[in-house]
Specification:
Blueprint lengths: L1 E6 L4 E4 L2 E3 L6 H12 L3 E6 L11 E4 L3 H12 L4 E4 L6 E3 L18 E3 L3 H8 L5 E8 L3 H11 L4 E6 L11 E8 L4 E8 H14 L3
Parallel strand pairs: 1-4, 1-6, 4-5, 6-9, 9-10
Antiparallel strand pairs: 2-3, 7-8, 10-11, 11-12
Helix pairs in contact: 1-5
Bound molecules: ligand PMT.
The site of ligand PMT has 28 residues, from helix 1, helix 3 and strand 9.
Amino acid sequence: MRVLITAGPTREPIDPVRFISNHSSGKMGYALAKSAVAMGHDVILVSGPVTLSPPEQAELVRVQTAAEMTDAVLSRYDNADIIIMAAAVADYRPKDHLSQKLKKSDGDLTLVLERTTDILAELGTRKRADQCLVGFAAETENLRENAQGKLTRKNLDWIVANRVGQADRGFAADTNAATVISRRGDVIDLPLTRKTDLAREILKIIMSVAP
Ligand code: PMT
């Protein structure tokens, strides 16, 4: 199988020295890439800025911004059998990217943000019957309900719902727990474990159970 995986955060520049980003470390996406390589699949890893080492056998595509991630994923989508979007892509970016460092003044500062492309939703509109599209849902509340909404709205085959905002799971932690939900309504709870083990379980499920 040709497996396309995204990982890590994006960085949306404000000026040459500042950006908007999030706490994603890339650990979940890189664990998925390593497991997929170990299972013998051809892996393309599209990664935001992280400090992790990618699996040697994977093709690594480094990006910074949501726009770069959009281009990198869309241009490789047609050749992929399975697509897993574990990256934490920015939903908004500064409308103006200043070419010089923003000078501080005494008053408040208002930044105007504009929407980025929802890559996963775009992939959902282009999905072929022979492709398997897997999204992640990072939630602080109503985990299952919110994830189910994303699964339907974005035309996914599977969604991996995980809680964020707790030290032992989600962003940056070495461990994570998830609820994997299929298009036809299967719900599989995966308890807290190391991200490497969770990644293997997620791949086993999406490759062996029809969505
Ligand atoms: O990297 P780690 O530190 O290991 O943390 C792992 C993780 C918490 C980042 C990961 O497990 C995770 O939940 N990734 C998805 C984070 C996220 O952006 O979730 P969301 O619910 O906001 O987005 C839903 C889905 O849409 C995701 O698959 C996301 O990749 C995708 N998306 C979001 C915005 C956007 N503009 N384009 C997208 O494709």
